[in-house]
Amino acid sequence: MHKGFILTKRVIQSPQGERIELWVASPDGPQRIVSEPQLSVCFVGASAQSRLNRVCSLAGIPVGFEPSSLTTLEQHLVTVVRSRSEQQLRQVRKLATEEGIILYEADLKLADRYLMERFAYGSIDYTFTSKSHSNLPEVKVKGGNYRPSLTSLSLDIECDEFESLYSVALVGENWKEVIINHTDIANASSEDYTLTVVNSEKALLKALRHSIQAADPDLILGWNIKQFDFAVLARRAKLCGVALKLGRDSSELSVSQWESGQTIVNIAGRSIVDGIEALKSMAFYFESFSLQFVATALLGKQKLIHEDDQLAAIKSLYQSAPTKLARYNFEDCVLVNEIATRTELIDYLTLRSRLTGLELSRPGGSVAAFLNLYLPRMHRAGYVCGIRPENGGLASPGGYVMSSIPGLYKNVLVLDFKSLYPSIIRTFKIDPVGLAEGLAHPDEAIEGFKGAKFSRTTHFLPDIITQLWQERDEAKKAHDQARSQAIKILMNSFYGVLGSGGCPLYDPRLASSITLRGHDIMLTTKQWIEDAGFKVIYGDTDSTFVHVGDELTSSEGKHIGNELQQLINQRWVEELQSQLQLQCDLEIEFETYFEQFFMPTIRNSEQGSKKRYAGMIDEDGKQKLIFKGLENVRSDWTSMARSFQHQLYACVFNQRPVQQLILTLIERLKAGELDSKLTYTKRLRKPTHQYVKNVPPHVRAAKQEDETRLTQGLPLKYNRSTVVKYVMTMQGPQTVTSVNSPLDYDHYVEKQIKPIAESILPLIGVEFEKLINSQMGLF
Hints:
By secondary structure, this protein is of the alpha+beta class.
């Protein structure tokens, strides 16, 4: 028995039929293995088989039909439909759609079905067959537990606005090189990397091809590497007539761009991992996902070039100091590798793949991960998957959010239900097959919502979650953060999948039975806490905020938190056993103790806000401010405003005077001392010409600069997804690189300082307008 970890998969053609080609990382190095010939499969209702047979025959598409005992979730018998190729199956699907014939699971890819039906998720065991009728390394595959040690290489290119290549850097553990296209420098090497000099783009591409084959990485990392680096390399290779054979079988790089904007990069035997996509899949959030911002936030490091007009700086270096450009190119790769190390990015993606079968290179994929895990179990229970709703599905009720009681508090506890939605799925047996079985046999079923009933005995999702939960507990004990995070994100995705119109198992009764059960749990928990004599001031999805009184010490407040945790957990065990005869998998935790807490009102209203608060906690003997949903954590507020809010709340929480803080800030603002902190940052969601009515400030600023660039014969700078940095001037919004008017300081007082101040000052008896009007003579 051989072991491996899947790096890439694809369907290949052979005289005997379509096969699945897998490149795997194995204890013996990279291996190419190939399946036995496979048929593409889907299902059709037994009553529609003859119609489908007729239309396929008329179209000359050969398909095979096979009776089965499988049914839809609505208990309708289906027939198996087999075709010799994925292309034929697509033709069958097109004909069926035109004729109004429903096919089930017709959009599953052959490679995905082949692996999922063998419970082969990332890691596999395989044996070579003895009856192969070809020279291919034919194998039989099943799921395995192999944990690979993968080799990686970071890649980054530098070019001008016309995509003319300047240089490309490749940095891995055993390969450090910059290839530069220049005529005025010679090959060189330093302690850090080798500098390879070529005299044309064609030569650069050939050198890149040679270096990647020589370094032979399992995966290639980069920052926006699919949509930019590899997309540019593919276009330049085509222009230069270079076959960019980067695959382990010397096959060419393949880059395809979809209408959705997604770019797919395929290199046989090598996974392509984009750092931005990977961090987003790990639930990291940054104001900006630029390499500069993320490196600063995670590593405390900056790119060597971080001017506002980065392209101009790169072009200047290429002309005047090409070795410095090479250093910059190299250091960008180093930053990507250090971010990957700091975040355990590769470990996370490897574990995600081993849990779900998702490729290392795939962004998102919650629905695909769910189907990989669920469909094989579903088939073995005698069911086939449904179809995706044409209208995208009906909206299900969201999580519970109570109206807050605004105010300034001391001693506020936060009690959180641990993974509430997965716990609800486990406890109340919420499951697609369980729903079908519960509706078919309602007498012993568990009541859900919107008419749902769930089987107590036939279900799969609760058991999948239970297994993942146990694995996560083990990961926590082993301090395996990457594994713990991968499992947490996977478990929490199941609710979203069941409520997504993009999932063929979508049913509004499933998602509603989760969220509305959550509403009941939160409301009941609130009542129990208030019955115990405490005040619930806010609740959100799985968190309950409890004010336990202003006169307590911190140790007394924390003691109450632990007592409430024990009380509520015990009450839920008893409640579920006595009312529904269910084992309780709900667990509430005393999560946070706020020494000081502020819940604001909705702006220009006395009503309490939602998902916005601030508080002060003690962390290892030091005060720490926590902000949620307020200006301090929003990227569309200036750094001056965020800093001011932090200082103002610190003063209020510590009962220090605030008047001088505010007056000094305004004085420094109007003296020009804070100009570097007045920049707004906002991303364009579409090209600037598509903004016609109600054009927002960042678009006005971008349009103005682009119009100036056109008059100077320069290319446009701003397009969809470009980040615009701008300031408000006496002439309106202007980008930071095109400011030609004095800054409008009154705007910043009115729109940045005043809203923050007025949200909290009334609670301590200070009026912002009176305060600044009394000092207007100073300015």
